[in-house]
Specification:
The chain is α/β, with parallel strands linked by helices. It has 2 domains: 142 residues, NAD(P)-binding Rossmann-like Domain (Rossmann fold, 3-Layer(aba) Sandwich), CATH 3.40.50; 198 residues, Dihydrodipicolinate Reductase, domain 2, CATH 3.30.360. It is 33% helix and 29% strand. It has a 9-stranded mixed β-sheet with strand order 14-13-12-11-7-10-9-8-15. Helix 4 links the parallel strand 5 and strand 6. The longest helix is centred in the C-terminal third of the chain and has 19 residues. The radius of gyration is 22 Å and the shape is globular. The N and C termini lie far apart (51 Å). About 4% of the residues have low confidence.
């Protein structure tokens, strides 16, 4: 089978991880790398001498008979670069967020369809074996009815100057929540604060209401004394904690719960019954999520399949982040989402009813 020829655009913070994975996967060969700065290019050429070409102009890649490109540049550049690449016949894997507005995301979807190209977004946690295990627990009913989900993504840095913490960190957790619940939120509200840079929120609290009255909360912060990557799922039967910072025991299942019982006037009877069971740490075969994601992209290119995290997936996450941004700008007002991701007053009553359906 002929190797797929890959080009990498962007060699800064995340690009080297993508380049490493594509180099290590059989059936792919990284032919060229592009970055505006010579220094990261030099590092990549020294680290991976098998790469044939480096350039400061990504458009030079169009003359190298490539099959696909992976884009890990600043989000503001995603739209223009991804569109240019697809119009030149290349399949595209672009890092999150796919774009900085949903209209541009839809335009990329249209270009991909018009040119019959694969368009995939790097929502890496949807390829995480621990997240997939929790998804199976929810789908199978092991956890019971889901009451709420709490997500924390915090550390000290990396501070951005052109995007706030919601655009930088929240897409990870929004994509996880959508994946776990197999649904979109019907409302969003966000409060944020600019502690270090005026006008650039570095801490934010986002609340999302999903169908069936499932509540979700996301804390995003660049200004925290410890690195935290944790998701808590609370169900009617069991509870789960996924801690991505843990080196080994990433998932713990708590056989705990509480039931409300009928009130009585009899002395000694209680109105709540608590259940305390075992804590189980399941064995989950670990595969590097980024490796799984890159392999999936290659499979989609070879077989003409639609990626699990395709352009529509990326667009929907952007629509939810846009709603969070609007809420934050309006002091935390709730933004109601209709099926197209657009909030309006006429939809408010309908989606409130949907949330409690």
């Amino acid at each position: 089978m002929t190797d797929l020829r890959i080009g990498a655009i962007g060699c800064g913070y995340w690009g080297p991880n993508l380049i490493r994975n594509f180099i290590e996967i059989p059936g792919a060969v990284v032919v060229a790398v592009a970055d505006l700065q010579p220094e990261p290019l030099n590092r990549m050429m020294q680290r991976f001498p098998q790469i044939e070409t480096s350039t400061t102009d990504y458009r030079d890649l169009f003359d190298l008979d490539l099959d696909a490109v992976v884009i890990a540049t600043p989000p503001a550049t995603h739209y223009a670069i991804a569109r240019d690449c697809m119009e030149h016949g290349l399949h595209v894997l672009v890092e999150k967020p796919i774009t900085l507005n949903s209209d541009d995301a839809q335009r990329l979807i249209d270009v991909a369809e018009a040119h019959d190209r694969v368009l995939m977004v790097g929502h890496t946690f949807e390829y995480n074996s621990a997240v997939r295990a929790i998804k199976e627990m929810i789908t199978s009913g092991e956890l019971g009815d889901i009451y709420y989900i709490d997500a924390i993504r915090a550390s000290l840095g990396l501070f951005q100057t052109k995007a706030n913490v919601v655009w930088d960190l929240a897409p990870h957790d929004i994509s996880i929540l959508r994946y776990l619940l197999d649904a979109d939120p019907v409302s969003v509200n966000t409060h944020g604060s600019s502690c270090v840079q005026q006008g650039i929120e570095d801490v934010a609290y986002t609340t999302l209401m999903f169908p069936n009255n499932v509540l979700a909360h996301i804390r995003s912060s660049w200004l925290d004394p410890s690195k935290q990557r944790r998701i808590t799922v609370v169900g009617s039967k069991k509870m789960v904690i996924y801690d991505d910072v843990e080196p080994l025991e990433k998932v713990k299942i708590f056989d705990k719960g509480v039931k409300a019982i009928r009130h009585t006037d009899t002395y000694g009877e209680f109105s709540f019954a608590y259940h305390y069971g075992d804590v189980v740490i399941p064995y989950i075969r670990f595969e590097e999520p980024l490796r799984v994601q890159c392999q999936h992209f290659l499979d989609c290119v070879r077989e003409g399949k639609q990626p699990d995290t395709d352009g529509h997936n990326g667009k929907r996450v952007v629509q939810i982040v846009e709603a969070a941004q609007r809420s934050m700008q309006n002091g935390g007002d709730t933004v109601y989402l209709n099926g197209n991701g657009r909030g309006n007053a006429a939809e408010a009553r309908r989606v409130k009813e949907l949330a409690h359906a």
